[in-house]
Amino acid sequence: MIGSTELIAILIAALFLFGPKKLPELARSLGSAVGEFKKAQRAAELQLTEFDAYTRKAENKITLKDKEEDKEKHETSLQEKEESKEKTDVKTT
Fold it and tell me: What average pLDDT does the structure give for the chain?
């Protein structure tokens, strides 16, 4: 942050460089530029937030798909074990 001493020095330098007539116009232009910068910053933050939401949604879908695939593999394995056990039981009887 700029301290009060630095701010006063900048204002005095601006007064000498641009004169008292140009100083209000310069201040308006500077204020407008700062406003535009803040507007662009908010837009960028919004885009990043939306991107983050899409990323989370995609990660959740991938995780869900992986869990479903794991479930199917376990179910298939269980069925194969049961079928194998049934075949073994039939042979022993």
Answer: 90
For the chain, what percentages of helix, strand and coil (3-state, to nearest 5) are there?
95, 0, 5
The domain of 60 spans: 20-67
- State the total domains in the chain: 1
CA end-to-end span of the chain: 88
Residue 29 lies in a domain: yes
Provide the whole-model pTM. 0.53
What mean pLDDT is predicted for residues 39-67? Answer: 95
DSSP 40-79: HHHHHHHHHHHHHHHHHHHHHHHHHHHHHHHHHHHHHHHH
